[in-house]
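Just scan my protein:

——
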Amino acid sequence: MERKVAIVADRIGWEERRLIDAAPALGLRAEWVNDESLCLGHPAPASLTGYDALLIRSRSYTRGGLVATLAEETGVPVLNSAAAVHACENKLSLRALLRAAGVPVPDFRLVLSRADFDRALAELPPPVVLKPVFGGMGRRVTLLRDADTAHSVYDHVEDLGHGFEQAGLVEPYLAGGSSLRCFVVGRELVSVAEFRSAGGDWRSNAAVGNRNRAVTPDPEVRKIIDAVVNELGGGVYGIDLFRTPGGHVVNEVNHAPAFRAVASTTEADIATAICHHVRELIA
């Protein structure tokens, strides 16, 4: 019997189309449900009734967790869980959660004011990276190479940021220009790609364009990934690791990860892996 899956997202991108195409081979029918037109509350809206599973693919760093929280009231499996999405949306909450569990994360300072920023620069001298607590895809992540530039940049944070947009993290700049994107489905590490900065951009995010190659994960990487999943629960995650002299650290975990770059680099059939996991959840 064909089972229906709602892909809850703000738009249909490359990844969502691959999921829709891969679903029928596993007895699923995947349909896009616009997360901007749900008006969630109680009872569940008609737009979410009749589905056997909900796959949260909202790219918004606030919308996904809110939708997942109320979607769980429908009584059908929701992937990822609201708790996992909320943790991933907030870089500070995620790092606190992982650090408490003994999972290695970068050193950082929470910056909520100019006074915080000044003290962070004193404790972690430039070069440092300033990044928003809420956000992803490398946006508003800034490399501060010296103190003069740092203070000028923070002027813009104070003047243009509003509310939670002013909450940031300052962390040491880990030179090398590379990161590992580890893609997890369920509890399985299905692919790992290394991304290196290119084209004059120091960031190594897949979203900003760079060089990449497939990587065979070593035992240390697998141990870290297992520890992250143990804290968040099984799901679909893009886990970014940085290499340091003391080993890898978890930079961030994406709850609705893009996978075009990883799939093209590693040749992993990620869409099918996700659909297979969804099918197992509703079997």
Observations:
- DSSP finds nine helices and 13 strands in the chain.
- The chain has a mean pLDDT of 89.
